[in-house]
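Late entry, written up from scratch paper. The run itself happened at the end of the previous shift, but nothing got recorded in the book at the time, so transcribing now.
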Amino acid sequence: MKKIIVAVFALSSIFNLKAEETPKNFNDTTAVKHLNLSEVKVNASRVNAKMKDLPQKVDVITKRVIESSPAVNMADLLKANSAIDIQQYSGINAGIGIRGFAASTSSKYAVILINGKPSGTNNIASIDLNNVERVEILKGPFSSQYGSDAMGGVVNIVTKESTGELGGSVGLEYGSFQTSKANVSIGGSVSENVDFDFSYAFHNQGKDYMVGDNNFYDKDYAETILDPTTYGERMENTKFQKHSINARIGVNLSYDWKLNLNGSFFKGNDVETPGSFWHVYGMDSKDLERYTVGFDLKGKQGIHNLTFSPYYSKQEEQNFDLGNDSYGDTKYTYKNYGFQLNDAIYLNDHILAIGIDNNTQKYESLNYTTEGSLESPFQPDYNNIATGLYSQFQMNFFNGRLNASVGMRGDNVKFKTKANEFLGNDSSSEDYWVFTKNIGVKYDIVGGLSVHSSWGDAFLAPSAFQVAGEYQTAFGKTVGKASLDPEKSNTWDFGFGYKNFKNGINFDLTYFDTHHSDKIVNEDMDNGDKTFANADKADMNGLEIVASYDFGALTDYEYSLRFYLNYTHIFDATVKNKQLDGSYLKSEMTYVRDNNASFGVEFDNLKGFSTRLNGRYIGHRYEDNYMYTADYSNWPNITRAPINHKGENVRTDLINEDVLRHPVYYVFDYSVNYKINDHYGVGLTVANLFDENYSEKDGYNMPGRTVTARFTYKF
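Output as recorded:
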């Protein structure tokens, strides 16, 4: 099977190498411009600098890659194309980790933005790809630009802004597990002063997916973690249906000023949640709903480029108990609103960005018993209110050969918890200031060869209930600590690169080193209550490699045949746990992959035919072992028992293992697309080509081989 697929790829590529009579000029041909990423302006840089001028490490996933990928949401796209870590569950739920910071569905060490503004969600699996133009991944500390959470990096999703002649597309897809998809998008100018974009996407998986049946590497070891009972079996309770709508209206107020009104809506209906392959946490379902509204007012006044962007989002998640565990229904509401005001001042070849961010996060929850009456939530409702003042200076010297950046930011963070009769807490509040900074330098030595280095610090603000909470649960009383500091980190990196688009070469090697301090942990008080403390530390360092070569450069880009690699290797990811005597116990960090890589080959004849074989290497990761059944009646002396699935005990050898070392996986995707004419196109994608049995989170096995056929009509 593997040899057949590779042969088909090679033959289809060779067959389509035949070019038109006139060679293309790589400088002038519009079809080739999307291959050269050096000139892309990075929206998330605050100064809107070109990618080639930034000292910091930036990856860009283009529209070309998005359209050729079998990914159905942002989580699938990022994990297959950016060499970052991910934690993903069945049931539209995923979070990311960057540069050794643990992957989490709360994404607490990475900031998720849409067009430079808070996305309104930490669940990247709920972000659809239909309206996405490109994705910018900024790796490293960016708190000096975006405040709390940007310790590992920033993911900025850039959406379409169509102008000119009206156009659009309609797409239909059908594939494995009775999966059907439909999308429509339209955009352009309706008059000299008004333009718009609108898109709608529908996705339905009508049948539970099948788990993979193979392992590309070391299946014997993989079976000890995944368990032989999972191979080739159906992952029960994984059906879902979702809808996504995005809309934008642009109004040119004058030659130099434009107003963009934007909004989006996402809804997941009857999203089934399996509670692991063995249903340790029961088989339930949930509804997800999120909407966002806002506008961007952009304009120029002399040397000033001004942007004012208020925004509001509301996300609701309702979890429904289906009667197979001891938990009742829950409802979570997350509101995120505020504004951004930015002035990018152009000083000849330099850009100074100054601005203010104001952001409020409101969290509310309701818990119900299995009988339907209200009960104590897991924590109090709270508000986090942050106001940040920042400046970022991008400098350009010696006709662009030397680029330098320096920035700083001060954040005032206020915490407010609300009283709750079930938890027995009163309302309370606290606040503090945090100051962060960054510096970076990039120097082009000669002919595309450059060196770059940057340093920055970052922070993670504790949640309001960690600082100002006080509440009672069945497990005791928890008291917030007003003196709790934010988690802090500082990272430096150094690397060199060689980029020569004319010769088809792109290479960059970057070493990074991070020290993470004041990690927040649970702590027992002398009176038996629980609180929080800044106790633990961590160190992470690693190497990032981005490399590609395009054989199309040999023919002045009559076609593109590109081999590529994006690789992150973690040399060290250790946590130092503080002991009662004040000493530190060193251990491997959990939920951090030691290696992540995407690699492959893609061919585009630049006349309508393209094909791509993408591989993903997923390295080892340590995870806490929660896949057992437990009796908490004699807390803290928990009695563990094997998982019982369909009358049989499974993973019996792992019951008493506290930490598991997860195996290596290789996952390959293949796609082929053909543009029949200016209007019609067809395509085929095969996700998980070799039917790998793998998981992004212990117990939540991902789908096996998935085949999808696609038809598109453009107008």
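The two ends are 38 Å apart (CA to CA).
(Scratch paper discarded after transcription.)
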